[in-house]
């Protein structure tokens, strides 16, 4: 399902739902993937970012890319407090829901 929202500059964006695949895509593009990391594994969603090989800088880059792509503001440190991709997904979906109101 696609939604639209207006950014702080008044630009209207079409927004798709944010999914775990979006997190994987952004992690691959921003921080890369270690040879030992399996982003396509069944346990990806509930594996700690640290165990996937992503540190706080990688999560900061994830937050920055989400902000740019989805036109939302993520306060400093908020996304870094999530422990797993599933927690990050829930956080971003909540932020997107707030801007759609």
Q: What's the quick description here?
A:
The chain is mainly α and 101 residues long. 46% of the residues lie in helices and 10% in strands. The longest helix has 16 residues, at 85-100.
What does this structure look like?
This protein is mainly alpha-helical and 101 residues long. 46% of the residues lie in helices and 10% in strands. The protein has helices at residues 20-30, 49-52, 56-70, 85-100; strands at 2-6, 12-16. It has a two-stranded antiparallel ribbon with strand order 1-2. Helix 1 (20-30) packs across helix 3. The chain is globular and about 40 Å long.
Order of helices and strands: EEHHHH
| Residue windows where pLDDT falls under 50 for at least 5 positions | 8-12
Q: Roughly how many Å is the radius of gyration?
A: 14 Å
Helix/sheet category:
mainly alpha
Percent range for helical residues?
Answer: 40-55%
Regarding quaternary structure, what we see is single chain
Number of strands: 2
Mean pLDDT: 83
Total of DSSP H or I helical runs spanning 4+ residues: 4
Physical arrangement of strands within the biggest beta sheet: 1-2
Shape: globular
Distance between the termini: 16 Å
Provide the β-strand percentage band: 5-15%
Main sheet properties: 2 strands, antiparallel
């Amino acid at each position: 399902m696609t939604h639209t929202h207006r950014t702080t500059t008044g630009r209207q964006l079409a927004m798709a739902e944010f999914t775990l695949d979006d997190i994987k895509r952004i992690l691959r593009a921003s921080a890369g993937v270690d040879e030992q990391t399996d982003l396509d594994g069944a346990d990806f969603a509930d594996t700690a970012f640290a165990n996937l090989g992503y540190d706080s800088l990688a999560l900061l880059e994830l937050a920055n890319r989400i902000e740019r792509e989805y036109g939302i503001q993520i306060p400093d440190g908020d996304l870094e407090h999530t422990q797993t991709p599933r927690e990050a997904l829930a956080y971003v979906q909540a932020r997107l829901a707030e801007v759609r109101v």
